[in-house]
Amino acid sequence: MRTLIVFAALGFSLACSSERTTTSVESAPVTVMSDTARAELAPGGRLRAALNYSNSLLVKARSPEPAGVAPDLARELARRAGATIEFVGYENAGLVADAARQDAWDVAFIGAEPARAGDITFTPAYVEIEATYIVPAGSTIRAVADVDREGVRIATTSRAAYTLYLQRTLKHAQLVEAEGIPGAADLFVRDHLDALAGLKPRLLEDVTKLAGARILDGRYTAVQQAMGVPKPRPEAAAYLVGFAAEIKKSGFLASLIERHQAHGLSVAAQ
């Protein structure tokens, strides 16, 4: 009898331990995926996840297998849908948005910009990234608010979410766009422009290569990174809204950011 009691207690202890360690979202209920949502999100049992390779905070590596916060979220979605995963990579977010009209992917991880909302249904933001400016040595610009004035030329990346924001909001300064983030940095140096716009984590790397340059304190926006599905897939879109809220509340998203050391990403507010 004493032996049976010991084994029973041990079994109870192991069961409790397993419950604590095998679930990564134990502080929030798992969002239920309906059959219709599954069919819209992963048609034919395959989930095609679009990745923006230029966002190194969300996609840390392309090969041998995509790695980072966004690929891991895609794998979790595929697991819940009982589907295989296929990654579809793009060099920038603009190309991801374009491909929404071509039935090239089922879920994407890019900035939720109004200019993209005609073709994509977005969730609320799940993470955000601060955007600011670098100014060259000797610049008289001291604050973010001082950049938007007549005669100021800003190097920026064509079709990036932060560029779309600046296109909507700048009143006086001129945007000079280049293809790709390295292209914008090269343009800034080569043409002696007044500021370089970008995401703060990348600018922290770039400023170390530019003698005397400095990053302006503060931000002009925080890029809202969201998940999206091509229109019209209403049930898949509704599921992703619940999924985004769940991963933020449960700590699952924060654990991915820490695992991939994606410093510069912040969990967006609920």
Written account of the structure:
With 270 residues, the chain is an alpha/beta fold. The protein folds into 2 domains: 29-127 and 224-267, D-Maltodextrin-Binding Protein, domain 2; 129-221, D-Maltodextrin-Binding Protein, domain 2 (3-Layer(aba) Sandwich), CATH 3.40.190.10. It has helices spanning 2-22, 35-41, 69-81, 93-99, 161-169, 181-190, 200-206, 234-250, 252-259; strands at residues 46-52, 84-90, 107-111, 120-122, 127-135, 153-157, 174-178, 195-199, 214-215, 221-230, 266-267. Strands 1, 2, 3, 4, 5, 6, 7, 8, 9, 10 and 11 form an 11-stranded mixed sheet that branches. The radius of gyration is 22 Å and the shape is elongated. Residues 1-28 have low confidence and may be disordered.
Helical fraction: 25-40%
Treating each run of at least 4 consecutive H or I residues as one helix, how many helices?
9
The number of distinct β-strands equals 11
Strand count, sense and barrel status of the largest sheet are:
11 strands, mixed
Shape: elongated
Structural class: alpha/beta
Question: Cα-atom Rg, whole angstroms?
Answer: 22 Å
Average the pLDDT over all residues and give the rounded result. Answer: 89
CATH-scheme architecture of the largest domain: 3-Layer(aba) Sandwich
Predict the CATH topology of the largest domain.
Answer: D-Maltodextrin-Binding Protein, domain 2
CATH superfamily of the largest domain: Periplasmic binding protein-like II
Q: Please, what is the oligomeric state?
A: single chain
Please give the CATH class of the largest domain.
Alpha Beta
Count of structural domains: 2
Output the helix-strand order. Answer: HHEHEHEEEEHEHEHEEHHE
Range of strand content:
15-25%
Low-confidence stretches: 1-28
Separation of the first and last Cα atoms: 52 Å
